[in-house]
Structure formats: structure tokens, C-alpha cells
Design brief:
single chain; 2 domains; Jelly Rolls; Methylamine Dehydrogenase, Chain H; elongated
């Protein structure tokens, strides 16, 4: 906050709002006015980066039109897309090259995948494993792995669990061979490479069942139930399978497809929020889970309640954008995305949330700088700032009620300032604390900068408008449109003293 003189000689007091921290649904809109490190009521199709800058989400280009709804997306190799598509009579597996398996799963099947031995492997509860080798789909030849619900890879082995009638049992393949499981092994197989079987029923109790699998630090298998997690370490010579007691996980998962390796940890969705499993920053030895979603707990639980089957919730991690995206599909083909944006170098440094509804994305996958998303009838490829796109999202950012220091006094505003850079249109609607609209202002942003490049302190990119109103508190709704990347660094309101 600072004081200045308007050209007319009127003395003004400036109230600035910047270093934006993303959505905070834990507090009412009337109690979020902090100025610096300002939280938001809504941040739709836009995110706040580690510097506190509001950035409109990337645009996308249509890659493929499909018959049904994309329920799961994966890659084969570096750029060949493979997906599960829910159609009228069942769910098909389809690849970019035209290969397909029609009605291989039920219409509402939950499908998951992993990469093993140069193939993309698909699983769904009650059905055999399916492999895509880059040309065609092939079904597993093992007669002993007909129905796994969850799959992952660990130390060149394929791990399966969650089959019908086997809710606490795990099978781990032979090294480098996803067709050889314990029942398929030769009696004289080498101990170091042989397949493994174990049952965690005595660990999780008779009431528990496996709900998801993940890997931690490439050497540990993370097994989730609905209420807890347990970590097993398998020795390289196969002589020891033991629980890692140094790792405590007192939360389970609602969906296997939300378990993602992020930086040096594992992210997953539980009933009450999003968690990260990681080593202690204090000693680097013990590991436990850290809650990541305290700011959006109410919003998170609301989104879960709108999904008929929580196992349909999926997530993916965009390494280039440092974002963990969660997708909450509803039965009417609509979907809300909840996104956590992390600092590039330290995940604990930043915890900024936003939402999105661009293209009603149901699921997504990222590999080698390519991000794909699927919805009801389409697959989209996302474009980063320097690339032209077919469609761009409309971003809506809503501030809390801004009191300018006091909730009781009537203020007389003079003008408003937006500090922004990029290209496009910014519309700002101003409301009083009772929700009545005061005025609407449009800003045309046109930079002569190279696409995708932004100055750190664009003092020459300040846009002013008259804002002459009386109010106790004011709330701003900022809408970003157009083609191009727009960044908002700060907003300020000048008040007459």
C-alpha cells in the first residue's frame, strides 16, 4: 500500500494485490483479503506459478475425433497414443495406428495401464491383461493372471493385484518376462529372477482389500487399501520380501489411477484429500505422507461427491509444467479438473491450487513434452506458449472481497490498475460486498515481445481505468480471453484519502 497524487491533485492511497497463491476454499470470501500472498476464491483455467503470477492455461489442438468417451489415455513409445474408449455396447482399446479391440471391457470399466518390456499393458478387473506392441493388441498367454484390477512395474517386473477373489494377494512376474507368474514358474527356476507371490491379508486385516499400487524410489512397492498404505522392499536376490517399517502411510487411496510418481515422491488421492509420500526433509531417512490439499479440502470433497464411482477419478503429472492434475468425471460427460502447481525445484515450497473445465477433460497423459487429454468424443494435444493452438480456454479469476484495511468504513475509489503482459483481452467486473455489480472494464493486451517471453518486472505493462464507486468492500471477477498467453502480475485500486 502506498500514497500518491492523482493528476487532479487528489491524494490517493493505493491498495495492491499480488503474489497470488491460488484457490483457498478453507475460508469465506470475506476473510481472504491479505494483499500480499493473495489467495483467490476462483481460479478457473488459469494457474498461479511459483512467483505468484496468474497464467492462463495453455491452448490445445484437436488430435482425433472418437466415437465414444475417452476413459483412459496412455502412450506407446514417444508419441503413439493408445486409449480406452467407452462406446454404446462396451469399452474398446484403440491405438493411433488403427489397431483396436472392440467391446473388450464393460461400458463402465475402470481401465489402467503401465509400460513393461517395450509394450503398453492394460488391465481391468475381471479381464485378462492386454498388451499393445506398437502394431497390434495381444492378450496375455498366462492362464494364471486372468483378472487383475491394478498393475505397476517394479525392478523390471510386472506387479498385479486386485483380482476377483484375490483382494489381498499380489503376483510379481519373473524379471523381464510379463508372461511368467508364480504358477507358471519352473521348479528349478533361478531364485534371483523367479516370479513371486505374497499375501498382505495378515497386514491389512480381513476387512481390507487392495485398492491401488505404486512404486517409491524405484525399489519399493507401495500397496494401498482404502484406509492405509504399506510399503514392501523386495531384495534384488529375491530372498527377502519385507515391510519397510521406516515408512508410515496412514491414508489410503480412492483410485489407483491417481497414484503418480512426482519428483522424489508419490502423490495419491484419499477420501479426505491429496497426499504426498516422501522422505523426511529433516533426516532423509524416515518417510511419511504430507497432506497437500488443506486449502481446498471442502472443494475436493464436493468434487468427489459428484462422481458416481470414485475409481473413475484419475490424475496425471505434467513434468514440464510441474502440475499434478486430478480429473473428476460426472455421469453427464462433464468434468472438473483440480490442479496443484508446484515449485520447479522444491515441492514443499509451493502449494497452489486451481480448477479447470476446458474441453471437459476426462483423463490425460504426458510423455516427452507431449500432453494429451480425452473427453466425450475427442482427443486433444496441448500446446505450450510458443505454439499456436486450435482452441484456448476462457479463464476466470475471482478475488475475495477486498476491504482495503477495514470492513466497516465506506471507501471512495478513484481508479484501478492491472499489471499484465501477453496478448489477448482481460475483462474486469467489479462487485460490492453485497454482490451488486458496480462496473465492467476491458483491457486489450498487446505485447511486442517474442511469443512466450515475459519480462520479470514489466513496469511498462500497467493498464489504468477509472473506478469511481463507494463501497465497504469490492470483489473483482477477472475474465481472460483471446489467443495467446496472458500473465497477470498484480492488481491495484486507488482510494481517495
Amino acid at each position: 500500500m502506498s500514497s500518491t497524487l492523482a493528476p487532479s491533485g487528489v491524494k490517493l492511497k493505493t491498495h495492491s494485490y499480488h503474489n497470488f497463491q491460488g484457490v483457498d476454499s478453507s475460508r469465506d470470501k470475506s476473510s481472504l483479503d491479505t494483499g500480499d500472498e493473495q489467495h483467490l476464491v476462483d481460479c478457473i483455467n488459469a494457474s498461479c506459478d511459483w512467483r505468484g503470477t496468474i497464467i492462463r492455461d495453455n491452448g490445445a489442438t484437436l488430435r482425433k475425433t472418437t466415437v465414444g468417451t475417452i476413459r483412459h489415455l496412455a502412450f506407446y513409445g514417444s508419441d503413439l497414443a493408445v486409449w480406452a474408449e467407452s462406446q454404446d455396447s462396451g469399452t474398446a482399446l484403440i491405438a493411433d495406428n488403427g489397431a483396436d479391440l472392440i467391446d473388450i471391457y464393460d461400458v463402465d470399466a475402470v481401465v489402467t495401464s503401465t509400460v513393461f518390456g517395450g509394450k503398453t499393458v492394460f488391465s481391468s478387473r475381471g479381464k485378462p491383461l492386454e498388451y499393445f506392441d506398437g502394431t497390434i493388441f495381444k492378450q496375455s498367454t498366462s492362464k494364471n493372471i486372468q483378472d487383475p484390477a491394478y498393475i505397476t512395474t517394479l525392478q523390471n517386473r510386472l506387479v498385479i493385484a486386485g483380482g476377483e477373489g484375490s483382494s489381498t494377494k499380489l503376483k510379481v512376474s519373473r524379471v523381464d518376462d510379463s508372461e511368467i507368474f508364480p504358477e507358471d514358474e519352473e521348479p528349478d527356476a533361478e531364485q534371483v529372477t523367479k516370479a513371486i507371490f505374497f499375501d498382505i491379508g495378515n497386514v491389512i486385516g480381513n476387512q481390507g482389500s487392495i485398492k491401488g499400487l505404486g512404486t517409491f524410489e524405484n525399489s519399493r512397492l507401495v500397496i494401498f487399501t482404502e484406509d492405509k498404505g504399506v510399503v514392501y522392499e523386495i531384495s534384488t536376490d529375491n530372498t527377502k520380501i519385507a515391510i519397510d517399517d521406516s515408512i508410515i502411510i496412514n491414508a489410503g487411496t480412492i483410485s489407483h489411477n491417481t497414484i503418480k510418481e512426482v519428483a522424489d515422491g508419490v502423490f495419491f488421492c484419499a477420501r479426505d484429500g491429496v497426499y504426498r509420500l516422501a522422505r523426511s526433509s529433516a533426516n532423509g531417512i524416515t518417510a511419511n505422507i504430507e497432506p497437500m490439499s488443506a486449502k481446498v479440502t471442502r472443494l475436493y470433497r464436493k468434487l468427489i461427491s459428484q462422481v458416481s464411482n470414485p475409481e473413475d477419478i484419475s490424475a496425471h503429472y505434467d513434468q514440464d509444467e510441474h502440475q499434478y492434475h486430478i480429473f473428476f468425471p460426472r455421469s453427464n460427460s462433464l468434468c472438473t479438473r483440480l490442479t496443484l502447481t508446484l515449485a520447479p525445484n522444491d515441492v514443499s515450497e509451493s502449494n497452489k491450487w486451481n480448477t479447470g473445465d476446458f474441453n471437459n477433460t476426462q483423463c490425460a497423459a504426458a510423455l516427452g513434452g507431449i500432453t494429451l487429454s480425452g473427453n466425450n468424443g475427442q482427443i486433444w494435444e496441448y500446446r505450450y506458449s510458443e505454439d499456436a493452438a486450435d482452441e484456448y480456454p476462457t479463464a476466470v479469476v475471482t478475488t475475495p472481497i477486498l476491504w482495503h484495511g477495514t470492513m466497516t468504513e465506506i471507501k471512495q475509489s478513484h481508479s484501478m490498475l492491472i499489471q499484465a503482459t501477453g496478448e489477448g483481452e482481460i475483462q474486469v467486473e467489479a462487485f460490492d460486498d453485497g454482490g451488486r455489480i458496480l462496473s465492467t472494464h476491458n483491457f486489450q493486451i498487446q505485447d511486442d515481445l517474442v511469443a512466450g517471453e515475459f519480462p520479470d518486472v514489466p513496469l511498462n505493462r500497467q493498464f489504468n481505468r477509472k473506478l469511481e464507486h463507494r463501497y465497504r468492500g469490492i470483489q473483482l471477477k477477472i475474465t481472460i480471453k483471446g489467443k495467446g498467453l496472458i500473465q497477470i502480475l498484480g492488481v491495484a485500486i486507488n482510494i481517495k484519502k
